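Look over both lines:
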Amino acid sequence: MATRRTQPRNNKARKSGEKSSTLRIIGGLWRSRRLTFSAAEGLRPTTDRVRETLFNWIAPVLPGANCLDLFAGSGALGLEALSREASSATFIDQSPIATQSLKNNLQLLKAQNATVLNTDAVKWLSTAAPEASYHIVFVDPPFRCGLVQQCIDYLQEDSILCKGAYIYIEIEKEAARPSTPEHWHLHREKEAGQVRYMLFICED
C-alpha cells in the first residue's frame, strides 16, 4: 500500500537521493523474482508471511480473476495475483513515484494484462464505472486514516464487485473490525505482528 506523499520539486534531486527496496514474488510464473521499487516515505508492503497466507486462502478463485489493488504502493498484492494466473490487475495509487516503479516492473515482467492509475483510490471508487466487475479486491490503505470504511462503502456499488467476490482488508492490529454489508461474509481473519488482516466474500 502507499500513503499520501508529496512529489519532490526537483526531479533530478529526487533521483539522486531516492532510496530503493526490493520485493520478492512468492509463487507462480514469476516465483522468486526480485523487483526493485522506490522506497517512498510511508510505503508499507504486505509482508511475505501475510502474502503467503492470503494467497493460500484465495488460490481456488485466483486463476482467471479480475483483480483490483487499491493503494497499491509496491504492487506486491497485484503482482503476486498476476504471477498466479489472475486474468488482469488494476493498480491504483496516488503517488507518482510508486506508480512509475510499478510501470517499470510490469514492463520488466512483460505483463500485458495490467493497468496502473496514478490517482486517489477513494475518489476513483466514488466515480468508478469499470468495464468488468472485479473478482478480488485488495484494500490495504495507510493506517489510522479512516480510509478502509470509505472504501467499503463505495465497494457496495453493484458495478464494482462480482457476485462471490473476495475482498481482502488489512488494518492495524489495534483497530476495530470495520463495518461491512450484511451480505459480506467473513471468510478468514488473522493477525501477524502489528497487522490484522481479513478476507470477506460478497455473497449477493
About this structure: The radius of gyration is 16 Å.
